[in-house]
Write a structure and sequence with these properties.
Distance between the termini: 6 Å
Radius of gyration: 19 Å
Structural class: alpha/beta
Shape: globular
Order of helices and strands: EHEHHEHEHHHEEEHEHEHEHEE
Number of strands: 12
Largest sheet: 10 strands, mixed
């Protein structure tokens, strides 16, 4: 028998399976389809479902990384689009694709969903590509790259007395040490902090550039229990956005993350695990404060984005890693976070719980 869970939605929806690729610096020999297919086969095999039995499919990726329009249509070859399937795509991290799929199940239009995302960042300069998401009139013409903007946020934290370079180095060291137990991580074990990229951030404070894929399967109600011994129930999920202009917000705080967490019910009870999408060590400081995480919470036991940060998949991986801990009984209540945009501009928070014996 299982005990009650707190649910605030019309339907109970759970993550019932999670799979990811090994995250590598380069995958020159593989196309996006060849990257995606093994992961999709693995996640479906974990549930026993076939692609034709999935009610809804949603993907997340970026045409900017691929360098061609509507590139996501090619990866549908890896899903199998015949017979015809119900399918959608978001030009975002896969965490937002999961949100769309969750909504689809909430409406009753599907009972299961396959969500996948991928990023192949190795062919180009991610730091340059990400400047294209900035305000086109004031910021983008200056070409401030993602590391420079993260350093601006880190320096604001240092100036406010909320951290220092030693504290940032400790976050990076802990993340890489935890990643030693993650066979999919790109960077594992002791990694030197290295030289400054942009002060106060050193190489170790920044995410690796690499390629990778992630996928999850969602299911509703009793079907979730049939497909998974211990489903990771999504008891709350919400996403919010900050002002686009960096000068209009306090870079040492993340009110959008806090608001999303409130609406997701994070503060209703304690969590034991937090998978935070913090590509830079300084961003973990901001997120810990916004989510009210104490020292007893295991933060990024997978190593987090400092160990592997495949663009457009790293946020979905945070949800998948949190769910996987619930599946294997290592966690009872976890929070997963995903971000997009410069300096934590857009933030999604999901609360996951396992059935209580």
């Amino acid at each position: 028998m299982t005990g009650p869970r707190t649910s605030r939605y019309a339907r109970d929806v759970a993550v019932v399976a999670f799979a990811q690729s090994d995250h590598l610096r380069r995958t020159d020999e593989l196309s996006e389809v060849e990257m995606v297919m093994p992961v999709l086969h693995e996640v479906l095999a974990a549930t026993g479902l076939k692609a034709g039995e999935i009610g809804f499919t949603c993907s997340g990726s970026s045409d900017y990384l691929a360098g061609r329009a509507f590139s996501f249509t090619m990866t549908l070859d890896g899903v199998g689009a015949w017979p015809p399937i119900s399918e959608s795509h978001v030009e975002m991290d896969g965490a937002w694709a999961l949100y769309e799929a969750w909504v689809k199940i909430q409406t009753g239009e599907a009972d299961t969903a396959l969500v996948y995302s991928y990023g192949k960042a190795s062919p180009g300069s991610v730091r340059d590509v990400l400047t294209r998401q900035l305000d086109p009139y004031y910021l983008a013409p200056l070409w401030p790259d993602s590391v420079a903007l993260a350093a601006l946020q880190a320096q604001a934290l240092v100036d406010a007395g909320e951290t220092d370079e030693t504290g940032l180095a400790a976050i990076a060291a802990r993340s890489r040490a935890d990643a030693a137990n993650n066979p999919h991580a790109q960077l594992r074990g002791a990694v030197p902090q290295g030289d400054y990229q942009v002060r106060p951030l050193r190489t170790g404070d920044c995410p690796p550039v690499g390629d990778g894929v992630a996928a999850v399967v969602l299911a509703a109600g009793d079907l979730a229990r049939q497909l998974c011994e211990r489903p990771a129930w999504i008891t709350g999920i919400d996403h919010r956005i900050e002002a686009h202009g960096l000068g209009l917000r306090d870079l040492t705080d993340s009110p959008s993350t806090r608001t999303a967490a409130q609406h997701a019910g994070l503060f209703d009870a304690a969590v034991d695990t937090a998978e935070l999408h913090a590509p830079f060590s300084s961003q973990e400081v901001v997120l810990r404060k916004a989510l009210g995480l104490g020292d007893t919470v295991a933060v990024n036991p997978s190593g987090g984005a400092l160990a592997a940060n495949p663009m457009m998949a790293a946020g979905l991986i945070r949800i998948g890693e949190a769910a996987a801990r619930i599946h294997r009984g290592a966690s009872d209540r976890a929070v997963a976070h995903a971000t997009s945009g410069p300096c934590l501009q857009q933030n999604l928070v999901a609360v996951l719980e396992g059935d209580r014996a």
